[in-house]
Amino acid sequence: MPQEMSLAEVEAVARAAHAGQTDKAGRPYAEHLSAVAEGVRARGGGEELIAAAWLHDAVEDGVLSEEWLAGAALSQRTKDVVRAVSKRAGEEPEAYARRILATPGAPLVKAADLAHNADPRRLAALDEHTARRLERKYATMRGLLGLTPDD
């Protein structure tokens, strides 16, 4: 078994995979990845979950393939969390939340993701309609996961 990737290597892969992408407010996507990774660290997540935070949108966004993830020198826990937090086309929010809740570590990564996505400073950069729609979406997912806005 090859040695697992270091967090610095995982970060470099994630930054390269998402290079050129921007978030809904036009900011470099890597800022979101960094904030989620830091949110996981601040919530007590260890290296496996911080690695998952760096990669949490990579498969969902199609910038890294499931085949890449399967073969990557990452722990099984990291891979399981990345898969759990990757939304699938046409998936109902309830099914998505059940998968997250059933995967150890995934709720912590998703909590950090939702906290950054719902940050009022980020939402303020969007048009009002989009900001309200996303606030409702994030609040619904927090509710399905049993999270409070402070989680």
How confident overall, as mean pLDDT? 95
Rg, please?
A: 15 Å
Order of helices and strands: HHHHHHHHH
Span of the ends, CA to CA? 36 Å
The oligomeric status of these chains comes to: single chain
Structural class: mainly alpha
Relative strand content? under 5%
Number of distinct helices:
9
Overall shape: globular
Q: What's the total number of strands? A: 0
Uncertain runs? none
Tell me about the largest β-sheet.
none
Helix percent band:
55-70%
Q: What's a concise summary of this model?
A:
The protein has helices at 7-17, 29-42, 47-55, 66-71, 76-85, 93-101, 106-117, 120-123, 128-145. It has 151 residues and is an all-alpha fold. The mean pLDDT is 95.
Description:
With 151 residues, the chain is an all-alpha fold. It contains nine helices and no strands. Helix 3 runs parallel beside helix 5 (76-85). The chain is globular, with a radius of gyration of 15 Å. The N and C termini lie far apart (36 Å). The mean pLDDT is 95.
Write the layout of secondary structure elements.
Layout: H1 7-17, H2 29-42, H3 47-55, H4 66-71, H5 76-85, H6 93-101, H7 106-117, H8 120-123, H9 128-145
Helix pairs in contact: 1-3, 2-3, 2-7, 3-5, 3-7, 5-7, 7-9
